[in-house]
Amino acid sequence: MAGRVVNVFSGVQIELLSEQNARFPIRLQGIELIAQRSGPRRAVQRRLNGLIGGRFVQINTAGNRQQGSLLGFVSWGGSEINLRLVKEGLARVVPEQLDKDRLALYQQHEQAARERRLGHWFGQRPSRSPLPQ
Q1: In terms of pLDDT, which residue wins out, 131 or 45?
Q2: Do residues 9 and 15 touch, judged by C-beta distance below 8 A?
């Protein structure tokens, strides 16, 4: 599926306008926001909007839904945006939404972001233990 991002509702929810002018709510699969307070959550929303707002993106989805939105992996400019948010310390991994290979990659990058105290991991003690499987 492909289309233009016409709304960024949160750091993990967007609205896609397809080439056929159909609108689809999309939730970024395999991640969730770290920040619990509204200020930091809005910062992630602004970051996601800066990355893909108004852009033509590709969505890799198996058609699964969560709270009415299609779960999918968003790609733009040769980058998987879901993973990029994890790498920047703005999102954490949701293991049950990822296949084995993608899970290992996402967990590796989440651990690196934690250790480097990136994004919302800043100010938290870095964890040396592996992430739960």
Answers
A1: 45
A2: yes
Q: How far apart are CA 121 and CA 115, in angstroms?
A: 8
Main-chain dihedrals φ then ψ at residue 20, nearest 5 degrees:
-90, 10
User: Domain residues for 75?
Assistant: 2-121
State pLDDT tens for residues 4-22.
999 999 999 999 999 999 9
Check residue 115 and give its pLDDT.
95
Q: How far is CA 92 from CA 29, 31, 40, in A?
A: 11, 5, 14
Dihedral angle sign, alpha carbons of residues 96, 98, 99, 100: negative
Q: Which CATH number does the domain housing residue 115 bear? A: 2.40.50.90
